[in-house]
Design goal:
alpha/beta, twelve-stranded mixed sheet, 11 helices, globular, binds S-adenosylmethionine
Amino acid sequence: MLVDRLHRPIRDLRISVTDRCNFRCGYCMPKDKYGRDHQFLKRNELLTFEEIEKIARAFVELGVVKIRLTGGEPLVRNDVESLIQRLKGIDGLKDLSLTTNASLLSEKRAAVLREAGIQRINISLDALDAKTFGRLNGVGYPVEDVLSGIENARKADFEQIKINMVVQHGLNESSILPMLEYFTGKDVILRFIEYMDVGNCNDWQNNDVFTSKQIKSLIESRYPIEPLDANYRGEVAKRWKLVGSPLEFGIISSVTEPFCGECSRARLSAIGEVYTCLFASSGFDLRGILRDSSQDLSLHQAVQRLWRGRDDRYSELRTTLSSTRQKVEMSYIGG
Ligand code: SAM
């Protein structure tokens, strides 16, 4: 089994298929930093679907069992469905999922994604009221359209739908209870996520985090809750349910209770760099290996070498590391 220097196996791969997104959420792609003149990756720089498949196969052969497609917004990449079909055919891959803002999730698109091979889908939704949602997504996108996207996902019969809400202090904690109420009986799982210091463009401050403790107390002030067992060792969310209700929710304490010790995730950027930590400053170029036949390292050797040397645990070291450290942006590396 391939393990890193802290004995963590390689299990998950996040693949970013594009650095573009149609939203401008302040915590990820604030519009003052991603304006009209922002230079996105060029088409010929992006990995082709054939290249992504080759890299994904190598990762699965080395131990990866879960792949999640993300971005940017993965549904803005043309014909992402044909990539999904390719990945679906990889022997040994147990779980293929997608993270999206659901703005482009029509009924037909949801059915096509399911049919192509997406098993589970995560949908980001940070507020339910139109005004707050429009402000948070940075482009005034209507919340009703995302709620329709969620309904379309439900009709498409994915194995699991999770709704992810990033909670930012003073901006959207008032949406926590309405989210629980709205999604009760809708057969989805809610995840409340602490706002993280990913990248540098969001000017993150410790005070902007609405902590998992605060999330839990807010919920308990209205509803009795009970814990649920973890689904598997190292699950990042602490799972809960409302007493007497089928609604499951989870809280992810990425900042206040980091889980680096269990991190088995690698990330592949849209141009083929592998990152071994969400908070890394640089990645390792696999596209060069694929496109330049004079390179003497194989994909397998490169990934093995990289993973064996991995000792990242940024979240555990956060307070001792400089706040001026340059980190890759989430929209680029894949959320
Ligand atoms: N566009 C897709 C979406 O909205 O789900 C996929 C990419 S997005 C980068 C993936 C996830 O990362 C979203 O759920 C988003 O809320 C989360 N995210 C981005 N920046 C974050 C931050 N600073 N802290 C916590 N979560 C963040």
